[in-house]
Amino acid sequence: MDTNTLSTIAPLFFIMAIMYFLLIRPQQQQAKKLREKVGGARRGDTVVTAGGILGTVVKTPAAEDQEVTIEIADNVQVKVVKSTLTDVRPKGGEVTADKG
Description:
This protein has a single domain (3-89), classed as SH3 type barrels (Roll), CATH 2.30.30. 37% of the residues lie in helices and 28% in strands. The chain contains one helix and five strands; from the N terminus they run αβββββ.
């Protein structure tokens, strides 16, 4: 490689490295935290679905099952897919919108 080729490729690699550390890596870490929270949802936890529905977990089947039953009103229970949960708060925890 001559110096001219290296001087044109180096800024591209530099920009890619910056993009990785400022955008991609934090997004992956945030997604991992959410997967752990959703996977650890227990009976009595307050959850928020992607549609904005607040509910309380009433039944959590086996860990490999992809559905969880939540109660959205008195005696109104619905099954939701775990991947649609956007927030999980421990028993009695207040649900607030995440900023950012």
